[in-house]
Design a protein that fits this description.
This protein is α/β, with parallel strands linked by helices. The protein has one domain (about 5-145): Nucleoside Triphosphate Pyrophosphohydrolase. It contains five helices and nine strands. The longest helix is centred in the middle third of the chain and has 12 residues, at about 50-60. The two termini are about 20 Å apart.
Length: about 150
């Protein structure tokens, strides 16, 4: 269903990464008393692609420099709404590296993590399939295109 109403229910979840294979997760949110680190949620505007929504948010709102978006896309249903899809996309700098203040541009409470750190510390991450998705991206075993993270 591609009407305007359904676009408003879709979100894109950009995974901001850097060269040492770290991903940036936002301030922990408490759900049922358990700390859970998460990705930003960017609401997609009517007719807007997921790549455009992520670019709009990261370049215009967070003031990040030029970026590259991977052709790998994770897809799963929204857990915070009755309908809609959330798309997980990988974003990296177009140049060699992000400026040192990129973490603060996204959120003052954001933190860089490796998937190994998150797994070894048994840190709860949302969406649940994020660590496998990122390991597949970095190890190169996930094909380009859209895949389900359910």
């Amino acid at each position: 269903m591609n009407d305007t109403h359904s676009y408003r229910r879709d979100v894109v979840r950009p995974v901001v990464i850097d060269s040492p294979q770290r991903l940036l997760l936002l301030i922990p949110s408490d759900s049922d008393g358990a700390t859970c680190w998460t990705l930003p949620k960017v609401l997609m505007r009517p007719g807007e692609t997921m790549r455009r929504a992520a670019t709009r948010h990261l370049r215009s709102i967070c003031r990040l420099p030029p970026l590259r978006i991977s052709p790998l896309i994770g897809r799963l249903p929204r857990t915070d709404a009755a309908e809609g899809v959330q798309y997980v996309i990988v974003v990296r700098p177009a140049a060699e590296s992000w400026p040192s203040a990129v973490r603060f541009a996204i959120s003052p409470d954001a933190c860089w993590w490796t998937t190994a750190m998150l797994r070894s510390g048994q840190v709860q991450v949302e969406p649940a399939g994020l660590l496998d998705f990122m390991d597949g991206y970095w190890d190169g075993w996930l094909p380009d295109g859209e895949i389900s993270l359910e």
